[in-house]
Design brief:
The protein has 246 residues and is an alpha/beta fold. Helices cover 50% and strands 8% of the residues. Helix 4 packs across helix 5 and helix 4 packs across helix 9. The chain is globular and about 45 Å long.
Length: 246
């Protein structure tokens, strides 16, 4: 999704698979463990100047890096994130609250939902039909994006990669987001390097406003009308450009 823009901007894009996704073997990993992985990865590749970008489930991992390795990173892009447990719960829509509750308290039921999602990915036409049936629950921008054939095919492809080892990685991530993060975001000291990117139709919009207030000197960019998925697709150029050292 970002590769074309990265080439245009002359950026080297490194996209490591988190444990259990794509070609990576599943192991239980904390958010802070990912920060240590990124530090080791950049040292191994001899990368001494870099920025980090995380979308949706990748965003809390970027915040973990901000907490752990702070000023080693030039800029942090935090896109369509969820928040730590208990923060702004009442501002979320019911669907997101329910997902986080199930992941935290009833993970076996959440896992059943993931298995259903995995089966739908194997049946794209049924998946498309379900999207159409549930369009009233989705931001308009997200629904329109899923009705674009190019994006729909891309989403099916990356979802299959995500479930290539089954549901373990997705379930582990959901439990990590819904449980204790292992760090306090208010303790992040490099806020001037952090930009939150969020659509005002995203179900966690109220949460990200609170997160921005908790991290001193962080920045929040709000995009009217954008949903959870559409934001990164429609504004990839701005996001990547913001990561380039001035």
């Amino acid at each position: 999704m970002f590769s074309r823009v990265a080439r245009k901007l002359g950026l080297r894009l490194i996209v490591p698979d988190r444990p259990g996704y794509g070609n990576s073997t599943f192991t239980r990993r904390s958010l802070l463990g990912w920060a240590r992985d990124i530090k080791e990865l950049t040292e191994t590749l001899d990368v001494d100047e870099f920025s980090l970008l995380g979308i949706s489930g990748g965003a809390p991992h970027v915040l973990a890096c901000a907490h752990e390795i702070g000023d080693l990173v030039y800029q942090y892009g935090v896109i369509s994130t969820v928040g730590p447990p208990g923060l702004g719960t009442k501002t979320m829509d019911r669907s997101l609250r329910t997902q986080l509750f199930l992941a935290s308290r009833l993970p076996w039921i959440y896992g059943m939902g993931l298995k259903k999602q995995m089966s739908l990915i194997e049946d794209p036409e049924e998946f498309r039909s379900q999207i159409n049936r549930n369009r009233h629950r989705m931001p308009v921008a997200d629904f329109e994006l899923f009705n674009d054939d190019r994006f729909f095919d891309f989403y099916i492809r990356i979802s299959k990669e995500g479930f290539s080892h089954g549901i373990n990685a997705a379930l582990h991530d959901a439990r990590a987001f819904a449980g204790r993060w292992g760090f306090d975001i208010s303790g992040i000291t490099c806020g001037e390097r952090i930009t939150f990117w969020h659509g005002d139709k995203d179900p966690a919009f109220g949460v990200v406003k609170l997160m921005n207030e908790m991290i001193r000197n962080s920045h929040l960019r709000v995009f009217p009308g954008e949903g959870h998925v559409s934001l990164a697709v429609n504004h990839a150029d701005q996001m990547l450009a913001s990561l380039i050292p001035k």
